[in-house]
Amino acid sequence: MSATLTTPRPTRPAKPAQQTSVLYDAAGPRGRRRIRNGALAGGAVVAALAVVVLIQLGRNGVLDPNRWEVLLNRDLARLLLRGVWSTLQVALVAIGISIVGGLLLAAARLSDRAWLRGAARVWIELFRGLPLLVLIFLIFLGAPAFGIDVPTFWALTIGISLYNSAVLCEIFRAGIRSLPRGQTEAAYAIGLRKIEALRVILLPQAVKAMLPALVAQVVIILKETSLGFVIGYTELLREGRVAVEYLGGTYAIPVYTAVALVYLLVNYGLSRLAKQLESRRVSR
Q1: Neighbour tally for 119: CB within 10 Å
Q2: Which pTM value belongs to this model?
Q3: What are phi and psi of 25, to 5 degrees?
Q4: Predicted confidence (pLDDT) per residue in 77-96, tens digit
Q5: I need a surface site. Which of 144, 152, 254, 255 has the fewest CB within 10 A?
Q6: Residue 217: which of 155, 153, 262, 174 has the closest Cα?
Q7: Contact 120/169 with Cβ under 8 angstroms?
Q8: What is the DSSP letter of 22?
């Protein structure tokens, strides 16, 4: 009598239970229908407003193809490209200074010394509370009163850096605080000092979680460079203004539309980068 051997069938992994939010209930059929109808109504209103705006612009001759042909002018393209390069110069330098300053301020806020934490907190509250435009004016107009001549490039860069170092400090501190407490305890257990634990163990892990927020702040810094217009720095927006003054007010809308599109393209690229970094972090 022969025995038959049977191999056990592999068991399929159980499907994860569908997560439900504890903050609100999922919309039912009526709720989904209301949301869909509301979205359709809102889209119809936006489309109607767009049509009205286009009709009004057409009546005023703004949509005349002859006006928009100016965007094919090589001199205008070179002028705007020069403005883009000037904008990126300020943005890159300000980003570097802001990151270094934010890291130093975060280390001070996490220090065991009360006076160092207090000084960092005063710095953060001061520069985060001041409007950025006022800060730029204070540097550009106030420094000459002390015999210091600050070029427009550095007045804009320093103002942006002071403001954003305070903002980035809070991003770094929040990222470090979000790590499990066991990471810090393990670092102390192997003999690392607090600054070494911060540099070797905590900060590298926190940066991965903070990358999307950091990229989002970079987008903000890039947009803040347009404030150089008010102190005479020849960034992208000011170059657009120079082009309008040379070509005439008739071409103002085409030129400023081109400037806006450049900002949108650069910021869209950075936003896409932030989303990719976020998706990679979640998938790991």
Answers
A1: 15
A2: 0.74
A3: -85, 150
A4: 898 899 999 999 999 999 99
A5: 144
A6: 174
A7: yes
A8: S
